[in-house]
Amino acid sequence: MAEDSIIVIGGGIAGLTATALLAKQGLPVTLVEAHHQPGGCAGTFRRGPYIFDVGATQVAGLEPSGSHERIYRHLNLPMPQAELLNPACAVDLADGSQPIQLWHDPKRWEQEWRYHFPGSDSFWALTAKLHQSNWGFASHDPVVTPRNAWDLGQLLQALRPATITSGLLSSLTVADLLKLCGCEQDQRLRKFLDLQIKLYSQEPLDRTAALYGATVLQMAQAPLGLWHLQGSMQKLSDDLMHALQRDGGQVLLRHRVVGLELATRGMAWTVSIKTPNGKALELTTPDVVCSLPPQCLRSLMPQGTGMPKAYRQRLMKLPQPSGALVFYGAIDRSALPKNCPVHLQRASKTPGSLFVSISREGDGRAPAGQATVIASVFTATAEWWGLTESTYQERKQTALLAIRQTLESWLDLAPEAWQHQELATPRSFAHWTGRPNGIVGGLGQHPSQFGPFGLASRTPMRGLWLCGDSIHPGEGTAGVSISALMTCRQLMAQRGHQLRVAN
């Protein structure tokens, strides 16, 4: 390979974004993806006439100066067709009250939370101020986990008085904010926050960083927003693939990276790859961008391949992310409630709190008059491994029935209304995405893992970079795009060049 080549491992949105940005800079870059299609957890699959989004079903960052909009503009791509979600979600606390509607208009949202959570004004005022500080800080493209002088300079340039003030709360959780505002006894508010925040942080409110939670709670409101893509989530991947190939980037699909080794004197990397026909391929490059979960590095780099002992120990101590059970169903649209929202969330002990996405008429996911229904719930990955095949299938069928019956009760559906139904478990996600144990998100956003306390995109091994949902700012297609941009800016600076993406 060329002396200035770069290899990007993993073709999810983070890896695709990194490859497209580097190709735009004119660098010889190759993306290596184990699956037959890109997208990862934001990919899709087809069952007959139905198209299902694998994991992610809604998008942030399409608004002006949003992360996707900035990158699309930088890559000279037309923005994808998308519907602004209003409400973004209807949250049912399963206590007999009306669902809480997440309205896009801040004034209408204020009326909503005042009605459902009287006396919580100080909490919402505080989280709004924290979010404004966060967003102003993020707009300057800081390197949030600095590891050298250049990184630190980028961080300091992004700081403002409001950022420094809000930074004093970096060790607090969302539950601490409730306590500060005198709202800790409002059980309905706590339940709502638990449901919404865990979708993004994989942690409940008493273990989610206050600064992270404050922004999560504002994502649906203007000037931000959540969006429903026309066609499917695959549109993001297809657009990024077009950009990177247009600009000279190479893609190796169905090629699995099985090893990384830092060469003598630490000047180059040997990337060992298994090809589709089972043969071995080795590529040498000075820079590797890894968008896989960082837990993968331990197996890709066994002892003696260049990983410092302290870094290996840190990776060993990383908390285990969650897995998911995802029900994929199809139904006649006439069976659904009138004016059914695209996204719903409902509290439930069994099978757990469900997040539900329902396709729109004409959005390309189902034939006319029908709809796809995707319902997901977090699960511990360990519960699905080490089982005999019969035990696994029995447990899978039990989980499918529990989710389906919950949907039938919630949406008043008859069991015979389903045109299609299947369930994905952590085993399924391990097969589709290659993520260890089938994890579906990054590191939980506990204060000890958030922002400057989390993993850095710049590893202690020269030329090895990380991006993705375990790197600041966390999961979601918008979040991993920001992490990819941060990593590419660092990599380009290391080579003596600048990468600027206009706001």
From TrEMBL:
Classification via Pfam families: Amino_oxidase
Domain Amine oxidase: from-to ranges: 13-491
Signal peptide annotation: none
SUPFAM superfamilies documented for this protein: FAD/NAD(P)-binding domain
InterPro entries: Amino_oxidase, CrtISO-like, FAD/NAD-bd_sf, Myxoxanthophyll_desat_CrtD
NCBIfam families: desat_CrtD
Protein name: Amine oxidase domain-containing protein
